[in-house]
Amino acid sequence: MAQSVTITNVAKEFDGAAPVLAGVDLAIPAGEFVALLGASGCGKSTLLRLVAGLDRPTSGQVLIDGQPVSGVDPRCSIVFQEPRLLPWRTISANVELGARRATGAFTPAQVLERVGLAGYGDAWPHQLSGGMAQRAALARALAGAPGVLLMDEPFAALDALTRLRMQDLLVEACGDDPPTVIMVTHDVDEAIRMADVIVILGGSPAGVRAVHRVAEWSDEGALDALRADILHQFGIGAGRANHHDPPHHHHPTNRQEAILA
Q1: 123/254: higher pLDDT
Q2: pLDDT by residue (tens digit) across 99-134?
Q3: CA atoms of 117 and 208, how far apart (whole Å)
Q4: Dihedral (CA of 68, 71, 72, 74) sign
Q5: Starting from the edge strand earliest in sequence, which strands make up the sheet with 33-37, in order?
Q6: DSSP 61-97
């Protein structure tokens, strides 16, 4: 069952280094798909680690379904850019690792079928292509029926066609009762294609600089304008493709636009 994620005034700094995140506030309803966009090194992956409980914020709080994240959280699963399959375990045995602490988990055979790998349970990681290995990693993440699925550039290492197939597969594999998804990506088109909400991180230390609800840009020509608008915030292109603004769109302040530029 999908679970909400609430991030309140979160900051993160590492010993001897400049702060990475400051004043991050996000309220993500259960079942929503959120894409995190931002320049390299701005703290997107750090924020994912804080939600997963792999690291702790310096200040502020992360809640899942109203309960604090205080350590590695079994309510979350994570998919990395690399499949990270254990080479000494079969594909089924790798998938089983995703369900070892979960209740209501799927069997390896069930979840492998959902990602298009039925019949590959006895195969070894070295026998899979890059796209198949990433599907196995997705199966491992879904095996425990997580309330929150965290994805750190999961398709970045794939070729363009495999990437598009994996995007479709993710939607299909999550089924009729999808988890809450938070995905880090550098691909604006991927964010627009997949997400309900696009959150832009920027600044130093990084915070939330803009929030775009994709459905508000759904009429003809508006998605091109959204794409141009996002690219403009990173100093790419001449600005909006046109000046079509959706109703109730949240515009960042001039200060926020300057930071992103």
Answers
A1: 123
A2: 876 666 678 999 999 899 999 999 999 999 999 999
A3: 38
A4: negative
A5: 76-79, 148-152, 180-184, 33-37, 197-202, 207-213
A6: EEEETTEE--SS-TTEEEE-SS----TTS-HHHHHHH
Residues 252-259 have a mean pLDDT of 34
Q: Comparing C-alpha atoms, which of 100, 237, 117, 234 is closest to residue 173?
A: 117
111: CB partners within 8 A, 6+ apart: 95, 139, 142, 143, 173
Task: Please tell me the distance from the alpha carbon of residue 168 to that of residue 190, in angstroms, as a whole number.
Answer: 11
Give the pLDDT of residue 219.
75
Calpha distance 165→155 (Å, rounded): 10
Q: Is the CB of residue 194 less than 8 Å from the CB of residue 154?
A: no
pTM of the model: 0.87
From the CA atom positions of the chain, what is the Rg in Å? Answer: 19
Token reading at 163: 């990437």
- How far is CA 190 from its chain centroid? 11
- Please return the burial class of 149, using the count of CB atoms within 10 Å of its CB with bins 0-12, 13-18 and 19+: buried
pLDDT, residue 50, reads: 96
* Structural contact between residues 109 and 119, judged by C-beta atoms closer than 8 angstroms: no
**Degrees, nearest 5: CA angle 221-224-227:** 150
pLDDT digits (tens, 9 = 90+) for 140-173: 999 988 999 999 999 888 888 888 888 888 888 8
The one-character DSSP state at 206 is: B
Residue 255 CA to residue 106 CA, distance in Å, equals 47
d(CA 253, CA 246): 17
Using DSSP, state whether 73 is helix, strand or coil.
Answer: coil
Which position has the token pair 């997705």? 138
pLDDT digits (tens, 9 = 90+) for 33-53: 999 999 988 999 999 999 999
In 3-state terms the chain splits into helix, strand, coil percentages (rounded to 5) of 35, 20, 45
